[in-house]
Every structure is written in structure tokens, then in C-alpha cells.
Amino acid sequence: MSMADTLAASRRQTPTQPGSRWLWLTLPALLFFCAFWLLPFARLLQIGMQNDRSTQHSGYWTVITQPHYLLSLLNTVLLSLAVTLVTLLIAAIVGCFLARQRFAGRGTLLALLTFPLAFPGVVVGFLVVMLAGRQGLLAQISMSLLHERWTLAYSLAGLFIGYLYFSLPRAIVTLVAASEKLDRSLEEAARSLGASQWRITWDVIVPGLQPALLSTGALCFATSMGAFGTAFTLGTDLAVLPLTIYGEFTNYANFATAAALSVLMGGFAWLALMLARRLAQAKEAQS
């Protein structure tokens, strides 16, 4: 028997284990995960345990005991929740309309609605300044009509507009695709039984869109929690976590508190993603 026949026979006698094959296939992803997330995050946790430069307590204790850090956290969470809810409401309406209607220019309209996907956060912030800044369109109109200059760009209201503008295109793309997959026969059956449009929307359309709404809402919340470019463009005095973290490690070299705030912000975003996943799994189990 030749050497080639011997090797072929040994391979047939000792088949490769599927588990080891999948382990080798996932090894690059595991290495990437450890190098670019696990190790940096572990280092971030460690730095947060060090003493703050001003309070001489750990960064985590400083964050939960200092009112201005808690205010920054509260502003960020409430702002992200508001952006998420308004985004889902608008995107669901637009998504259902575009999925059900066929008209000339539909593709162009969808392309225009999703065009802001090409803009980074800094550009979005600049657009908000052009709309609601001191020399923006809103200020010019209010000055002409009321002799008073209205500005929203450098406040949480302006940040809300920027985050909404940034989040809507992503939500619309997802919800248009989800709306196209809805079973229209369920709506026809409900309508034939005398259900109003409101009952059809609440009892048929919303449950059908629930997985997409949950996943889109979680991503929108997580993105709004950590969005920096838009907030930085609109002003560094806004009390939101990304700017607070930036100020701590650039202006004061307070790495412990910056790390603790980063861990706290990441934890809230992670909880939102996990909650959306659990709710989606519960929905699938019920169906």
C-alpha cells in the first residue's frame, strides 16, 4: 500500500469532530472580540476603580454621589428615550405607508428619506445649527415676524432634533422591510369582522411589527446614548454623558471618573439591547 493510500485510510477511520471544526472557524472572531472589546473593557473597569482626582474616592463612587454626574446620566437617558419613541412613531407610520403604497417617485422618496445615512454626526450637528442656530433659518424667520431671535440648536432641544434626524433613516429602512412582510390577510379578516382601523392597527399591525420595533428601538436608544459628534458640534456645555466623559479626560485628565461614566453608559445601552432581545424571544415563544 502506498503512502497516499495509508493517509486516506487513516482519515476515513478518524473523522474530524464537528465541534473542533466550528471552534477553528470561530477563532478569528474570538480573537477579534478579545483584542478590541474584552481587554479594553476590562482595562476600563479597572481604571474606574482608581481614585478620582478631586474626591479621592473611586470613580464609580464619585459618579453615583456627585449630582452633576447623575444629572448628566438622567438627561442622556431621558433624551435617548424621547428620541427612540418619536423615531419609532414616525418611522412606523412612514414605513407602513411606503410598504403599502405604489406610486410614481416612491423609490426617489425612499432614497431621499434615507439619504441622511451618508452624513456623520458632525454634519448632522452643523445642519441643526443652520436650521436653529443664532443665524439659522428659525432665528431669521422669528426675527422677521416677532422681532425676537429663537434658537434651539445649543440646547437639549437642538440635540433632540439632531439625534432624531440621525436615527430616522435607519429606523425607516428597517420598518419598511418589516412592513412589507406583514400578512395582509389578517387585516382583511379583522376588517371583515367589523374591526375599526384603530383596532386593526393596534391588534394586528403593531404585534406584527413588534420584533422590528423592539430591535430598532434598542439600537436607536443605544446610539443616542453614545452619540458624540452631533453633541460636540452643538456645544460642549450640554449635560449629556458623551460630553461629560470627553470633558473629564481631556480638560481635567480625570481618567477614573471618565472610565466609570463610560462603563455606566455602556451598561445602560447593553441593558436596552438585552431587554429588547428578551422581549422578542418572549414574543416568538408566544407565537
Structure description:
- The protein is an all-alpha fold and 287 residues long.
- Helices cover 79% and strands 0% of the residues.
- It has helices at 3-13, 18-48, 59-65, 67-100, 106-114, 121-132, 137-146, 156-180, 184-192, 197-226, 229-234, 241-250, 255-286.
- Helix 6 crosses helix 8, helix 8 (156-180) packs across helix 10 (197-226) and helix 10 (197-226) runs antiparallel to helix 13.
- The longest helix is centred in the first third of the chain and has 34 residues, at 67-100.
- The termini are far apart.
- The mean pLDDT is 85.
- It comes from Pantoea leporis.
- InterPro entries: MetI-like, MetI-like_sf.
- Keywords: Cell inner membrane, Cell membrane, Membrane, Transmembrane, Transmembrane helix, Transport.
Tally of helical runs: 13
Q: Choose one word for the global shape.
A: globular
Pairing-aware structural class of the strands and helices? mainly alpha
| Low-confidence spans | none
Mean pLDDT, nearest integer?
Answer: 85
Q: H/E element string? A: HHHHHHHHHHHHH
Total number of β-strand segments?
0
Distance between the termini: 60 Å
Beta-strand share of residues = under 5%
Biggest beta-sheet profile? none
Calculate Rg over CA atoms.
25 Å
What proportion of the residues is helical, as a percent range? over 70%
